[in-house]
Amino acid sequence: MRNMLELKEVCVEYGATRAVRSVTLNVSSTATVAVLGSNGAGKSSLLSSIAGQVSTRSGTCALDGDIITGCAADEIARKGVSLVPEGRNIFKTLTVEENLRVGAASRNDKSGVQSDLAEMYKRFPVLFKYRAYKADLLSGGEQQQLAIGRALMARPRVLLLDEPSLGLSPVMMDRVYQTISDLKELGMTIVLVEQFAERALEVADWAIIMKQGSIVAEHPASELKSKPEILESAYFSGEAN
Questions:
Q1: Dihedral of the CA atoms 24, 30, 36, 40 (nearest 10)?
Q2: What pTM did the predictor assign?
Q3: What is the pLDDT of residue 26?
């Protein structure tokens, strides 16, 4: 199976702080990879560098063999990488439907966009219910569904999810993870950053553990479930993410 994402010795720095240190990672097509570790381990910075939201100090990232390092974030999105950021970052003054259409802004296929919009409403019935409402009227869980739906409107080849369960109730967390599981079944390539390791491992094929900006362990998700001592050791880091 070919690699959809290939990272080679990626480094990210914020001033004098090195948030990501020489990370090399291959993500196979259709695979779901969980990125685990404590707050400040560099997980969010890693996703942001893939999506072009932050610049890499060195190293390369390739999407299906095409180097995307140095490309602008909107160009990377057009090439097929969609990021659902931590905190969701929806446009709260726009309606739900307007937010979804923003996700398809780079597309020219009007009929396809309309078809995908109908698909989002089918996948997330609450978004259809509130499609004409301002997005800030949605609950946190509903906003997370909107953020995922907006990302999917770009028809990505890779979906990056940064802390999708953050601040959600158990019920909403279940709904979001059911969506992730459904996307996995459809063959979406997913990279998932998550504090709740157990939930991430339920849907992941592979897991990496980051600490202080570096990958310190890699395991099949099924194997990591049976080694809680490895997970426990991953959550001792206090650097800024």
A1: 60
A2: 0.92
A3: 96
